Structure to design on (761 residues):
């Protein structure tokens, strides 16, 4: 693409168009296609002034969001190319933005009034997800189009609208798909109303008692140990997820029921109806650009340019990673792929050149299937050839060997994936009942990753199989006729002759290196993240307002409250009584485990019942002797070191435990505060077996910690927490630096999700 037209005309008024400029409104400018259109208009098309519709986001204005594009490769590469010729590339590109681009702050779902004069509107904004909730898809793709055309009608202007759609708007069919208006009796207004009403119906359904009970049971099983508020929050999150999944299913099923592959193509078809009814039938000019599967650029802005994974790329990279041994596509079906710069060049031609095509002749399928067909097996061969020569590496740096596909039937592949999913889920369920060890935590992580990966791949198969087993061939007669009207000078920089593409070279030399680099960049970021997580803890900052809060069992001590009770038995009962106590404890263990799974405070109450009849003063005396020395000796060396580091940094150290206060008195000198469970005693000093106050665990500990921090003027964001149990997640979430110590499987899952540090003491 020529770089000759990069400087702004010095006579132009900054921030506004010159007389004779072509005034263009552009939607979707922050998207993949919109970015490329904007660069092309600014770089090679003189006399254009662009107004971009950009929604403010957070503290960023629409203008600031637009200027963020300057840091993206599509614009930084332009700056670099100019700088290579000795110019100040960044300044030139910035000047083009400042002098030729304005921002209309807003969003198509809440379209602002259009007041500036317009010659052309390029409508490229849409949700490109294949599987969103039905109301979201309609609100964005159909409602957004309706709002745009109504705003144009209200402005009283008559611009040429270039409506970017998709070649798949015709739905599922066989044979040649010609260009031209859609032939359907589906009413976009009725579908739009029904889609928006669907959320109200599903929300009501999600609140039925039987649905809520199911969510509560699942939440209790997963998060019951964190406390009732955590269960309620998890239950409500599950209900919202259920609503989303239900609405996604609504969209997919409704689209298929009227002949479309998915909700994306269905809503794009309805958006075309909006354009035809509101704009074309009112006597205005509209051109429809229908690209097929858009992928990386052939030439402009540079070979291989792509902004994130597009339609085919997740499947390609899953294959390259060895995770997709088969795919249910027809080997001889036509996979219709079009480079992004070819789509951009058609749009720019319609926006800036005087072309004659109007009405039914202004539907342009920007496709490859008719003029330069790509059989699915040919694409696979090119992909396999590339990954054989340039294999990806696994986590250990070993090259991944890619499989040879046999293109089996859909049902066979789905059965295989379903069997693998069931096996992974069964493994996860089995591991959940095993003790929490380093090995079981690794198993849990691996099984979760496998289950998630299989579910994602099966979703890809469900979504994309219609595109890889299609017997449709898209005609591009109008697009070829459009090219025939354009001058040689224009085509020199903006050609879109798809017959010139050699697909094998396109994949092996341009597209696959580009998407592989995206994958490697992501892997490098993940690797850096893992390295940061595995680094030794940084030196602690001196901070008198910081707390260091420690759990006891499994964190500071290697023992638990059951072992502590048996230590008391050994110190206070004759040997002949030990077998009976051991037998009683063993018989109670299953009940203790069930109580631990339900609620840690229940376990603490059950174990502490066994102290009934002991005298508090006798236990305190015991802790000043050999029993206390044994407890002191059971402190984990790593825990002792961390406690000392926090004290040296001036942090207030706090031990909070569900164990009896008298049993942890030997540890009191290590902490500024020790908070533990106190046993009720009768008037003679004998323990009744009942707790004087509820134990400080899970959410109770979190509530206590919030008040404690307020009372001591502590900064929880600067504080530290150490725990080992799923119940500890409730209060660990309050501190700025939470750490899971040899965690149980519940806390391990939370720590992995929230990227907390995990240490094996």
């Amino acid at each position: 693409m020529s770089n000759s037209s990069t400087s702004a005309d010095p006579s132009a008024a900054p921030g506004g168009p010159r007389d004779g400029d072509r005034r263009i409104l552009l939607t979707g400018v922050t998207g993949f296609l919109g970015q490329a259109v904007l660069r092309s208009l600014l770089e090679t098309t003189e006399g254009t002034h662009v107004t971009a519709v950009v929604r403010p986001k957070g503290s960023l204005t629409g203008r600031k969001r637009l200027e963020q594009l300057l840091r993206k490769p599509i614009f930084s590469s332009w700056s670099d190319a100019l700088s290579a010729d000795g110019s100040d590339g960044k300044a030139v590109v910035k000047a083009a933005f400042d002098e030729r681009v304005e921002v209309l702050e807003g969003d198509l779902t809440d379209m602002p009034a259009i007041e500036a004069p317009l010659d052309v509107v390029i409508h490229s904004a849409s949700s490109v997800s294949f599987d969103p909730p039905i109301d979201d898809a309609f609100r964005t793709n159909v409602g957004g189009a309706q709002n745009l055309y109504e705003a144009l009608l209200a402005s009283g202007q008559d611009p040429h609208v270039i409506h970017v759609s998709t070649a798949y708007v015709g739905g599922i069919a066989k044979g040649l798909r010609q260009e031209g208006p859609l032939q359907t009796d589906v009413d976009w207004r009725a579908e739009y109303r029904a889609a928006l009403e669907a959320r109200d119906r599903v929300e009501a359904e999600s609140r039925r008692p039987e649905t809520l009970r199911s969510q509560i049971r699942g939440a209790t099983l997963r998060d019951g140990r964190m406390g009732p508020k955590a269960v309620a929050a998890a239950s409500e999150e599950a209900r919202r997820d259920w609503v989303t999944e239900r609405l996604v299913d609504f969209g997919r099923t409704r689209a298929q029921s009227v002949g479309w592959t998915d909700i994306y193509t269905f809503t794009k078809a309805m958006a075309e109806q909006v354009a035809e009814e509101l704009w074309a039938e009112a006597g205005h000019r509209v051109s429809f650009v229908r690209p097929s599967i858009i992928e990386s650029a052939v030439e402009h802005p540079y070979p291989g340019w792509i902004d994130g994974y597009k339609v085919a790329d997740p499947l390609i990279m899953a294959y390259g990673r060895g995770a997709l041994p088969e795919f249910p596509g027809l080997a001889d079906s036509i996979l219709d792929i079009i480079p992004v710069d070819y789509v951009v060049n058609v749009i720019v031609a319609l926006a800036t050149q005087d072309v004659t095509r109007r009405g039914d002749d202004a539907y342009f399928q920007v496709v490859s299937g008719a003029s330069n067909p790509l059989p699915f097996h040919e694409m696979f061969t090119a992909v396999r050839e590339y990954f054989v020569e340039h294999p990806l590496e696994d986590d250990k740096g070993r090259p991944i060997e890619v499989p040879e596909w046999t293109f089996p039937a859909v049902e066979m592949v789905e059965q295989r994936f379903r069997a693998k999913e069931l096996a992974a889920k069964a493994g996860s369920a089995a591991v959940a009942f095993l003790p929490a060890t380093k090995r079981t935590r690794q198993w849990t992580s691996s099984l979760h990753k496998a289950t998630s990966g299989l579910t994602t791949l099966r979703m890809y198969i469900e979504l994309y199989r219609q595109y890889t087993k299609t017997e449709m061939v898209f005609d591009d007669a109008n697009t070829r006729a459009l090219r025939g009207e354009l001058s040689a000078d224009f085509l020199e920089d903006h050609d879109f002759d798809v017959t010139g593409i050699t697909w094998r070279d396109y994949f092996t030399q341009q597209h696959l290196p580009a998407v592989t680099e995206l994958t490697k960049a992501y892997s490098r970021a993940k690797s850096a993240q893992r390295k940061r997580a595995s680094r030794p803890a940084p030196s602690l900052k001196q901070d008198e307002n910081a707390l260091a809060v420690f759990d006891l069992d499994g964190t500071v001590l290697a023992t638990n409250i059951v072992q502590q009770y048996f230590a008391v038995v050994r110190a206070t009962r004759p040997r002949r009584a030990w077998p009976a106590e051991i037998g009683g404890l063993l018989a109670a263990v299953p009940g203790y485990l069930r109580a631990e799974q339900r609620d840690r405070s229940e376990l603490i109450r059950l174990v502490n019942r066994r102290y009934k009849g002991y005298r508090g003063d006798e236990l305190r005396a015991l802790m000043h002797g050999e029993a206390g020395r044994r407890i002191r000796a059971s402190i984990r060396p790593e825990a002792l070191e961390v406690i000392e580091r926090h004290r040296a940094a001036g942090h207030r150290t706090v031990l909070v435990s569900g164990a009896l206060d008298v049993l942890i008195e030997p540890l009191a000198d290590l902490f500024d505060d020790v908070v533990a469970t106190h046993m009720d005693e009768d008037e003679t000093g004998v323990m009744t077996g009942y707790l004087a106050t509820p134990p400080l665990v899970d959410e109770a500990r979190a509530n206590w910690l919030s008040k404690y921090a307020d009372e001591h003027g502590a900064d929880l964001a600067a504080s530290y927490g150490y725990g080992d149990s799923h119940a500890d997640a409730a209060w660990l979430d309050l501190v700025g630096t939470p750490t899971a110590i040899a965690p149980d499987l519940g806390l391990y899952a939370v720590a992995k999700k929230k990227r907390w540090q995990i240490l094996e003491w």
Remarks:
- Residues 548 and 720 are 5 Å apart (CA to CA).
- The longest strand covers residues 652-660.
